[in-house]
Design a protein that fits this description.
The structure is a homotetramer of 469-residue chains. In chain A, helix 10 (243-269) runs antiparallel to helix 11. Chain A has helices at residues 19-23, 26-46, 55-60, 69-79, 83-97, 111-147, 167-189, 204-213, 219-230, 243-269, 298-322, 332-359, 365-372, 381-394, 403-417, 421-428, 436-442, 452-468; strands at 152-157, 160-166, 277-278, 362-363. Chain A folds into two domains: 19-363, Fumarase/aspartase (Central domain) (Fumarase C, Chain A, domain 2), CATH 1.20.200; 375-447, no CATH class. In chain A, strand 1 and strand 2 (160-166) form a beta hairpin. Chain A has 18 helices and four strands. Chain A has a two-stranded antiparallel sheet. In chain A, strands 3-4 form a two-stranded antiparallel sheet. The first copy, chain A, has 469 residues and is mostly helical. Chain A is elongated, with a radius of gyration of 31 Å. Chains in contact: A-B, A-C, A-D, B-C, B-D, C-D. The interface between B and C is large, with 80 and 80 residues. Chains A, B, C, D: Residues 11-304 form the Fumarate lyase N-terminal domain. Chains A, B, C, D: Keywords: Lyase. Chains A, B, C, D: Belongs to the class-II fumarase/aspartase family. Chains A, B, C, D: InterPro entries: Fumarase/histidase_N, Fumarate_lyase_fam, Fumarate_lyase_N, L-Aspartase-like.
C-alpha cells in the first residue's frame, strides 16, 4: 500500500468519511475546475467561436480521475495556484487526442475565473447536499418535538434548574435554530455566482477575441451562457470583491453553531447523573471494551468538535478577504481556499451527524421527571409569590411592597431549615389568605410550563412546510 | 479631573470618537435596556394590566444619565449580567417618585429578554446609522467612478502590473463590495427582533400574570405590541437560539472587509514610489513635524486596523454562540456581548472613515499614467500573441501550436537584451505578416482595457438607486 | 451624572471591576506613557544633557489625572496614536510651569518608543499582579488537593464515568495546568523590554543630539539607563519585530485556558444532578429572588466567558503582528494594542475569579460517593477482566485469546438483564477459578484508583515552593 | 488513477509539497502512534513483563505502510479517535504473525496516551526540521545583512518615507524576529513530553498489571524508560492539562509571524514602482506566459498566505483547550489535533519558503538609492531643525520655543511653493547663523542613518553563534 503525503482525515474524525467531505474534496474541486473549462468551450463552440469537433477531446479529458492530484498540488506552488498545473495537464491530455483542440481551451479566461467559479460550484453542490440533510434533520426534530410536546422536563439556566417545561419545547428551539440557519443557507445558495473577468478582470482578452473572431456577441452574453450552463448566477465580475465568498461562508458557520448547541445539550443529558437522553446506538460506536458501562456520546463529541472549529475557519476566510488588495491579492485570496473548504467540510459533516443524532435520539422521560422533581415545589415559588404577595399587602398584614420580601423570608427559612415549604406557609401565613388546595395548585411545577406546548406547536408548524420541500 | 477605571478608547483610535461608538456605548446600551423596560410598562398599561398613573415615574426614571454606570458594571459581576443591578437601581429610582410603581416594572420578564432585546435595539440604531453612511460612501464612490471612468491606470495582480484599466473601474469594484455588504446589512436590519420569553423562555410568569389579572390578551399579542413599540420584529422566543445574533454580526464583518480592501488599495497608492492617490487633507491629520515630507495615510491606517480586528471579533461572537447550552448558557451568552459591540463599533467607525476617505480622495492621473507606462507595450503582449500566433501558424512559418511559443521567445529576448519589442518583432517576424501600424496598435496598452468602462457604467448604475434611498 | 461615551465594562462582567482592569486601564496606560517620558528626562538630566531644574515641572506634569483622556482618545485619531495628543498636552502642562522645560521632553524619541515601552510597562505591572494571584490560587489548590487527596470521586472521560479516582487528584491537575501557565508568565515577565529607537528605529536623532551636546555617552548606554529606571530589559531596538509582544501575549491566553478548565469542571459539578461542588457563597452573588432554589455559579460562568474570549483576542494580536511591514506597520501595529489589553484584562480577571473560586469551593464528598456508586462494580471490570481472562485461558476453559471475550459477554448479559455482576460471574465461571472474596475485592472500585493519591503528592510537592515565592 | 476522498493540498499551495507537510502527514502521525505502541512493548519486554519473543511481530507490524489510512480515518468516527481502529488493525497484523503477541500490546495504556504522545513526537520531529531551516535562514540573513550593511535605503513608517537607513539594517530586524521565534522553538522542543496515564489518567490498570506480574518497578520508572526511548520528557501525567500543547503551538505561530513580516516587506519591494528587491528566480515559478513583464512573487505570496492562516489555527488549538473538561474533553481535545497539525504544517512550509527567499533574494541598490532620493533633503530636516532651532532662539532672532516653529514655516513654504529648501533657508535665516557648507551637511540624508550599521553589527553578532549550532 503506497503511503502518500496526503490527508486521509486521520486527525479529523469530525469530517472523515462524511458525504460532505467527498463533495468538497480536492478531487471534487479539481473536477469542478475542469467542468468550468469544459463548459466554457461548449459555450464558445455553440457560438461558433471554436470548432465543434474540438469538444469531444475537451470533454473526454475533463475527468479528474485522469490526473495525478498529488503532482497538481505540488506543482501549484510554482505559480501559487492549482489551476496553472491542472490546465497544463488538461491541455496536454486534450492535445493527445486532438492537438488543435488544446488551443480552444481557457480562451479569455484567467486562473482566478476558474478557481473562484469552481469554488462556487463546490459550494453549490456540497451546500445543496447539506441543505437536504438540514431539512431531513428538521423533519426529525419536528417529529421529536411533537412526540415529546408534553414530556415534562426542567429548563436550565446558567446550569441551574429554572422552571418547568417540556422536552418537546427544548427540541422546538433546536429546530428553530437549525431551520433558520438552513433557510439562510438556502438563500445564499441561490446566489452562488460565476466569476468571469479575464486576466485583470476587464475581459480585455475575451473582448479582443470576439472582435478578432468577428463575433457579434458581447462578453456579457457569453458569460450569461456559461453561468446558465453551470447553474450559477451571472453578476458582473467580482474578482476584487470578496463579499460573495464571505456571504457563502457565513451560513456554514451558522449551521455549525446550531448543530453545536444540540450536541452541547445532548452531552449534558447523557451524563450518568442526568440520564435524560441517550445517543442512538450503532454497532461499534462509542463502546469501550475496558469500561462496559461507558456509552461514549461520539456523535455529539464530534459535532461539538466541528462546532468549535468553525468560528476560526470562518475568521480565516475573513482574514484572507481582509488582506484583499488591488485586482488579485498577494496571499489573501489564497488564504480563503483551504479555510472555506475546511468550513464547509466540517459543517456539513456536523449536519450529517446531527441528522443521525436527532433521528435516533433515545429519550428517557422518567429521568426527566426525576430530575424535574429534585427541587419540587420550589420551582413554582415565582408563581406563588406573584399570587400571594399582593394578597398579603392588600390584606394589610404587611406594608405596600413588603409582601414579596415576607414570602421570600419564608422560602429561605424552608431552605435553611429543610422544612417543607407548603406546611410552613400554611402555618405562617395569615389565616384565610389561602386554602391548602389553592396553595397546592400554586406550588405544582407541572402546571407552570407557560406557553411551552404552544411554542412547540407554533415553532414546528412554522418550519413544517419548509423542511419538506 | 477624576480618572475612572474606564475605557476612553485611548488604545483604540480605530473607533475612538466615532459616531458609531456613541451609538453602541455602554450608555447607549443601558439606555436601550431602560427603554425596553419602559416600553413594556406602556404595553401593560395600555392593556389595563398596570395602573396608568405609574407610567410617569417609570418614564422619568428611564434615562441613563440618572445612573452610575461604573457601579452598574461592577455590580453586574454579582449576577453575571448588567440588567440585574440596573433594574434594581431603576426600581429604586421609580420608587422614590412613586413607591407602588416599582412593582409594575419587569413583569413576566427576565434578564435575557431585556439584554437580548436591548442588544437588538443597539444593532438597529447603530446599524441604521452605519447603513446611512454606507450609502453616502456609495454615492461618493459612484461620483468618483464616473469622474475617473476613463482615467488610465494599470491593474495589478499579485503585486505586479497585469493589464491596463481605469481608476474608475477599480473604484466601481470598491463600490460593488461596499454596496453588497450594505445591502446585506439593510436586509438583516429588517430582522432585528424582540426576545420575550420570561425566566426559562416559556412565558410562564407572564401567562400566569395574565390569568391572575383576568386579561383576555395572549402573551403573543402583548409581545407583538412591545415589538411594535420598539420597532423590532416579533418572532417566537429565541433565547436558546443564537442564530439571530450571528446573522446580525456577520454583516458588520462583511462591511469591515469591504472597507479594508479600499484602505489596502489606498495604502499602496499613497506610497512615494506609487503616488497615484492621496488621502483627503485635514487640519492636524497625518502630519509629522519632525518629518515634513510625510503625509501619513491615517484614515486608511485606522480603517485597516479595524478591518484586521473584525474577523476575530466575529469569531468571538460565534465562539460564544457555539458554547450555547440549554435555556441560558453558562458563559457562552455572556461572551457574545462585548464582542458584538466591539464588532459593530469597529466596523461602523471604519465605514465612517471610509466615507471620509472616498469623499475627499485626491487622485493623481499623471502618476497613474506614468506607472502605466512603466512596462509600456509589454502590457499588451497578451493581445499581440493572440493575434499573431494563429497568423504565424496559418502562414506555415511555424507548426501548429508553435506560434505562441515563437512569439514568447521574441518577447523574452526583448526583455533579456533590453531591446524594444516592436522593432524586434518587425525584424524577426516573416515579412508581410503584419504592418508596423497594425503592430503599433496591437501593442498599445491604452486600447486594451476591455470592458473596463462598461463595467464602470454597469456597476455604478446597479447601485445608484439603492445608494440614494 | 455625566454620561460619557466610554466603556465602564457594562457589557463585560468578565472583567468589570477587577484589579487587573484597573492595572491596564486607559488611565494606567497613559500613566505608563507619561512615566516613560519622565524617566527619559531623568536619564538625560543625570547625563547633563538637559537642565536638572527642568525635572520638577516634568515630573509634576507626569500624572495622568491631569489630562482629559476622552479628549486624548478622540484626538488620537488625527495621528493614529494616543501618544501624539498626550505628548502635546504634557508639553503644554510642563510649559505652564516652566516654558523652557517643554523642549527637554521626548528628545530623540518617537511615538512607537513610548507606546511599545508603555505597553511593556503595563504588561509588567498587570502581569506581576496576575502572577501573584496565580500563586495564591496555586496555594489554595494545593491545600484543596491535600484536603481531598483521598476523597473518592469518579473520573470522567467524554462525559462518561471512566475509573475511580479522588477529588484531590483532579484538583492536582488543575494545579498542574495553572502553575505551568504561571511559570510561563513568570519567565516572560522577565523579558518585558524597552523599545528605544527613534523615528525610524535608527536612533539617528538621539545620536545627533549626543554629538551636538558633546556627550561621550553612547545611545546604548542611555537606553540601558532608561530600561533600568523603568525596570525593563534593554534589548536592541525591536520596533519592526513583534515577537516580543507575541511572546508576552501567549502566556495570558495559556492562563485563561487553565482557568477555563477549572470553571468547566465546576460548572458540571454544581448541577443539581451532579451536586459534587458548590461555588463559594457571597452576599448578593448568584441568587435569584424569583427562583430561590437557584445558586448560579457566577464565578465560573464569568471565568468561562473570559476563557472563551481569550483565543480570539490572542489571534487578534497575532493578526496585527502578521500585518507588520517595514519600519512601522500601516494598521497592523495599531491592531495589537486593544487586543493585547483586552487579553490581559480578561485573563487577569479570570485568574482573580479563579482564585476566589478555588479558595472557597464547597466540596460535597457524599455526592461524589453517590455518583461514584452509580455504576458500582462495573467501574472495576477492567481489572476483573485483566485478572480473570488469563486464568480462564490458562485453566483451559476457553481457548487462547478467548478469555476476555467470554468475560465481556457475561458483563453484557449483566447489563442487558440488569443482573448483578458478581453473582452472575460466580454462577457462570468455572468452579475454583476465583473465590467470592477475591472477586469482591477485584470488583471494588475504591481499591482501583491506581496512582491517584501518589500523583496528588507528586504534583503538589512539585509546585509548593514555587507557589510560595 | 484512483481518486480518493483525500487532501493532496490542491487548495493549499502554502504547504503542499513541503518537507514539513511530509513530517506531519497523516502517515507520519500514524507511524508515530505505532512507534509509541512498539516502544512501550520494548519497555515491558526489557522489564520481563511480556515475552521478548513477542517483539519481532510487534516491531514488524509497526510500519504505517501496512495500513489503509483511509479506512483508519473513516473508522475513527466510531470511537471518535484514530487510535482505536489503528490499534485494532495493528493487533490483527501482529496476531497474524504471532497470535499470543497481540495481547502484549497497549497494556495499561489508553487512546489519549498514544495520541498525545504521538502528537508530541510529530511536534518534535517536524519542529526539529523546522528549527534547522530557521537556523539556515538566519545564516542567510546574517550574510545578507553584512553584504548590505551600508547599502542606503529609506526606512518607511505608515507607508511613508521616514529616515535614511540601510538595507542591511532592515534585514537585521528580519533576523532578530526570526531568530527570537526560533530560539523560542528551540526551548519548547526541549519540553516535548510523554503522556502516560492509562484510561482515566490514574495509571490504575498499569499499576494493577505490575502487581499481578509481581514486578518491583513503579509506574513512574516504566514511564521514564518509555520517554527515554522516545526522546521525550517524562512529566507526571497531563491528560487533563493542555498547557503543554498550547505552549508548543505558540512558537509555530510566532515563526509564521516572523516569516510573514519578511514576505510583506518583499511584496512591497518587488512592485514595479518600488523595484528594490526581486525574488530568487526559479524555473517555472512566478512567470505568466500571457503577461511576460510579470514576475509574480510567489514565494512571498505563499508565505503571506501561511502567515495569515496561522493566527486562526492557533486560536483553534486554544479554543479546543478552552473546552477542556474533566479527565478527557467531549470535543475540545479532538479540536486540537487538526488545528495543531495545520499550524505546524503551514508554519514549517512558510519557514522553508522564507529560507529559499532570503537565500536568493535579488537586491537592487540603485533602486534603493533612487527611492531614497525622492524626498531628498527633506529626510533630514528633523536634524536641521534640531540644530538650528536653538541657535535661532539663542541668537535672539526668535523667542524661546519659537525656533522650531519658524523653521517649520520655512519648510512648509518650500513644500508649498516647490522651492528648494537649502537656498530658501540661506535666504531667510539670519546671516551668520549657519554656513552653506554646514547646512549642506545638515541636510544630507546619507549622513543621518544614526546607529543603523552598528545595529546591523550588533544584531548579526547576537545570533551568529546560535544560527550555526
Amino acid at each position: 500500500m503506497r503511503v502518500q503525503n496526503v490527508d486521509y482525515g486521520v486527525l479529523s474524525p469530525a469530517w472523515a468519511g462524511s458525504q460532505t467531505a467527498a463533495l468538497c474534496s480536492d478531487a471534487a474541486f479539481c473536477q469542478a475546475m475542469l467542468e468550468v473549462e469544459r463548459a466554457w468551450c461548449h459555450v464558445l463552440a455553440e457560438e461558433g467561436l471554436i470548432p465543434t469537433d474540438h469538444l469531444a477531446a475537451i470533454a473526454a479529458a475533463a475527468k479528474v480521475e485522469l490526473y495525478d492530484l498529488g503532482k497538481i498540488a505540488a506543482d501549484a506552488v510554482g505559480g501559487g495556484n492549482p489551476l496553472i498545473p491542472l490546465l497544463k495537464a488538461y491541455r496536454d491530455k486534450v492535445a493527445e487526442a486532438n492537438p488543435a483542440a488544446a488551443a480552444s481551451i481557457h480562451i479569455g479566461a484567467t486562473s482566478q475565473d476558474i478557481i473562484d467559479t469552481a469554488l462556487m460550484l463546490v459550494i453549490s453542490r456540497a451546500g445543496s447536499a447539506v441543505l437536504t440533510t438540514v431539512k431531513a434533520a428538521a423533519v426529525a426534530l419536528i417529529t421529536l418535538a411533537h412526540e415529546h410536546r408534553d414530556t415534562p422536563m426542567v429548563a436550565r439556566s446558567l446550569t441551574q434548574h429554572s422552571l418547568p417545561a417540556t422536552f418537546g419545547w427544548r427540541v422546538s428551539h433546536w429546530l428553530q435554530a437549525l431551520a433558520q440557519a438552513g433557510q439562510h443557507l438556502e438563500e445564499t445558495l441561490k446566489q452562488t455566482a460565476l466569476q468571469w473577468g479575464g486576466a485583470a478582470g476587464t475581459r480585455a482578452s475575451l473582448q479582443d477575441f470576439l472582435v478578432r473572431s468577428g463575433s457579434t456577441s458581447s462578453t456579457d452574453e457569453l458569460a450569461a451562457k456559461l453561468a446558465d450552463r453551470l447553474g450559477l448566477q451571472n453578476p458582473l465580475p467580482w474578482q476584487a470583491n470578496r463579499i460573495p465568498i464571505l456571504n457563502q461562508a457565513n451560513v456554514f458557520a451558522q449551521l455549525a453553531a446550531a448543530c453545536g448547541k444540540i450536541a452541547n445539550d445532548v452531552l449534558i443529558s447523557v451524563r450518568s447523573e442526568n440520564g435524560e437522553l441517550g445517543e442512538p446506538l450503532a454497532e461499534g460506536r462509542g463502546v469501550s471494551s475496558a469500561m462496559p458501562h461507558k456509552q461514549n456520546p461520539v456523535l455529539s463529541v464530534l459535532i461539538k468538535n466541528g462546532a468549535l472549529a468553525a468560528p476560526q475557519l470562518l475568521a480565516q476566510v475573513y482574514t484572507g478577504a481582509v488582506a484583499n488588495v488591488e485586482e488579485r491579492a498577494d496571499g489573501g485570496w489564497h488564504t480563503e481556499w483551504e479555510a472555506l473548504r475546511g468550513l464547509i467540510r466540517t459543517t456539513g459533516a456536523a449536519v450529517e451527524k446531527t441528522h443521525e443524532l436527532v433521528s435516533g435520539l433515545r429519550v428517557f422521560p422518567e429521568w426527566m421527571a426525576d430530575n424535574l422533581a429534585r427541587h419540587g415545589e420550589l420551582l413554582a415559588t415565582e408563581r406563588m409569590v406573584a399570587h400571594l404577595a399582593p394578597r398579603l399587602e392588600e390584606s394589610g398584614h404587611v406594608g405596600i411592597g413588603q409582601g414579596k420580601k415576607q414570602l421570600q423570608e419564608l422560602i429561605s427559612r424552608s431552605l435553611t431549615d429543610s422544612t417543607p415549604l407548603k406546611p410552613l406557609l400554611l402555618a405562617e401565613l395569615p389565616a384565610g389568605l389561602i386554602t391548602e388546595e389553592e396553595l397546592t395548585n400554586l406550588l405544582d411545577p407541572s402546571a407552570y410550563a407557560g406557553d411551552a406546548t404552544k411554542i412547540v406547536d407554533d415553532l414546528t408548524s412554522t418550519y413544517t412546510d419548509w423542511s419538506h420541500t
